[in-house]
Amino acid sequence: MAYSAADAAALRAFALTVPAGALDTAFAASLAHSNVHPPAPADTVLYARLLDRPQWGTHEWLDALTATWLDCQQHGSPPTLPATACACLIEAVRASLRVDGKPPGSADCDIIVAAAKLAQAVHATLATAALARVDQRLAAGEGVDLLTGLPTRTQFVHTLERWMNQAERKPVGLLLLHVTWGAGSPQQLSAQRDRLRRQLSDAMSSALRPVDMLCSIADQEWALIMPELRSTGQVQLAARKLIEICERSPEHGIPHLRGAIHAGTACAPEDGDTAHDLEHAARAALLRAIRADMPVVCFHADMIARMEHELDLERDIARTIAHPPFQVWLQPQIHLATGRCAGAEALLRWQREDGEWVSPPKIIDIACRLGLMPDLSRWILGQTVRILSELDAQGIDIPVALNLVAEDLHDEDLPHLVAQALATWRVPAPNLVLEVTEGALISDRDSAARVIQGLRALGCGVSLDDFGTGFSSFAYMRDLPVSELKIDQLFVRDMLNSSRDHAIVATVQALAHGFGMRVVAEGVEDQSTADELQRMGCDLAQGFLYARAMPASDFTPWVKARNGE
Fold first, then answer.
1. If you count Cβ atoms within 10 Å of the first and of the last residue's Cβ in the chain, which end, N or C, has fewer?
2. Phi, psi of 189, deg, nearest 5
3. Residue 561 phi, psi (nearest 5)
């Protein structure tokens, strides 16, 4: 019962006729009925990928599902997870087709059979991947990784427990070291990555005390057990030494292979009196090191609560990404010469059920980390264009700017998605401005340039945001088809007290006007600054002097009052 082209066609018809929300709701209901344990973040990512209907049946989709399932296993998900998810998918498709209460027709039956074949293919693929991983572990013999020659995670756990259970409770240190492969890793041959892992393992092993034990516990992670410590400071020194050794590796120095190396440390008995608690503490420190991009972080007590809060946020975002709980608010932009509201910036807002406001950078960071940024970007784009349509219906004809992240600028289908959204809501392209930062441009300038050119070809505005904070900003102004420039608030806020900031603002706005760009000053908080910006010839100002960001429902009356309409 192989999945065929006819099955793919039946499921494409299903995707066109049944709203995504109906399938997601039915899947969630089936999952709840199955009485499965509360999903971990990795589980929810698997569910989200499984419900990605446009990708159903593609090799890329199956590969992504396989990688996610292996990650779920690494994080302790039950072996029955794929079977449960596939059964819930079939039931969700069946339930989505029964909404009118009528018996299924022949087309409905074709869709249900196609879904069953698809689920069977998924289950078989994931089961094969799981068995392959078991075979790898069996081939490693007595807990030794054949590639690196180091003890595996099984040996690591047994050895750590043995040292923690010694009658004489001598201090034990634990160091977790994580390598995030470089930007070129997707193009790396597996042999290259294997060679790099071997080199790093050999180099680190040569620098240890005889009593220490280095283990390879994951594809890009090592653990170092340091028993019989004289001082807890030894663990931090060891972490810095191992990172230095790794960074001196010949292949690590190759730009397209170079990655980031981070370490988290903990010491028993202060940070944990069992093997589980000590590893939990070291992992919390490692997570903090990765998120803050710090080489080494030593555990301290509040990290557990912070890590659990981060994981809670991840669960919330992954669970609700199909129907995000976020809002898009608007912050006005004021035309300095007339005082009228002449534009706005769309800003992401999220208030959780417990009243906590989560910052937009945190939301974006988590979505990127979970691989959910494309879904979030499409949702924000749709919401922004819908708001533009509603503003037009209220007689407010102004452009609204929307921030793009680096991942958006690597998606060469973005101009097509923008064109679809504008056509759906009948919004003129010049009313949508896409803001890009140097940080988003720097990783793949050529790809970003093609995307920006595509957006400009549609008629959309493109704004260079946070201008002046990077080293290449002037080159971007020269080389990219940008229509607007935003002077960063870092220079605007203190421009009346700092001759350097004042000179930077004056120079930047003069250059931008020379290139035919509109200039927006961010962070305007007092009238004196606004007056000086107007004297310089700056076009628009944005900041707390005028208004903070507000819901779209409040923005409309605010604009009408401001503009005297």
1. N
2. -70, 150
3. -70, -40
d(CA 489, CA 467): 9
CB 328 within 8 A of CB 390: no
Residues 6+ apart with CB under 8 A from 455: 414, 415, 418, 434, 462
Backbone phi and psi for residue 349, each to the nearest 5 degrees, phi listed first: -135, 145
CB 282 within 8 A of CB 236: no
Q: Which of 564, 524, 531 is nearest to 546 (CA)?
A: 524
Q: Which two tokens stand for residue 370?
A: 């979970």
Residue 78 token pair: 């039950």
**What pLDDT shows up at residue 250?**
63
Q: Which helix (H) or strand (E) holds 120?
A: helix 106-139
Q: Which residues contact 53 (CB under 8 A, 6 or more apart)?
A: 11, 14, 15, 20, 23
Type and span of the H or E element at 244: helix 233-247
Collect the ranges in the chain with pLDDT lower than 50. Answer: 140, 184-188, 254-256, 471
DSSP state of 525: -
CB 123 within 8 A of CB 83: yes
The overall longest dimension of the chain from CA atoms, in Å, is 81
Residue 137, pLDDT score = 56
- Per the listing, tokens 């007056």 go with 531
Q: What type of residue sits at position 560?
A: K
Contacts of residue 205, Cβ cutoff 8 Å, sequence gap at least 6: 150, 214
Which of these, 157, 176, 169, 153, lies nearest to 275 by C-alpha position? 157
Evaluate whether 328 touches 543 at the Cβ level (below 8 Å): no
Contact present, 37 and 2 (Cβ < 8 Å):
no
Tell me: cis bond preceding 269? Omega within 30 of 0 counts: yes
Regarding beta strands 341-351 and 327-335, do their DSSP bridges make them parallel or antiparallel, or are they unpaired? Answer: antiparallel
Q: Which of 67, 20, 38, 63 is nearest to 370 (CA)?
A: 67
The alpha-helical segments, DSSP class H, found in 430-498 are 438-441, 445-458, 473-479, 489-492
Tokens of 58: 């593609």
Pairwise CA distance, residues 277 & 271, whole Å? 8
- Only one residue has tokens 């994981």, namely 311
**Residue 221 β-bridge partners:** 178, 218
- The whole-number pLDDT of residue 185 equals 46
pLDDT, position 184: 47
Q: Which residues have CB under 8 Å from 322's CB, separation 6+?
A: 20, 21, 24, 48, 51, 375
Q: Tell me which residue of 278, 275, 276, 274 sits closest to 299, measured CA to CA.
A: 278
Distance separating alpha carbons of residues 144 and 154, to the nearest angstrom: 9
Closest by CA to 322, choosing from 39, 37, 52, 14, is: 52
At which residue do the structure tokens 């927006």 appear?
520
Q: Which residue has the tokens 């609560």?
A: 305
Q: Which amino acid is at 220?
A: Q
Task: Work out the angle between the directed axes of helices 527-536 and 499-514 (0-180°, nearest 10).
Answer: 40
Query: If DSSP codes are grouped into helix, strand and coil, which group holds residue 145?
Result: coil
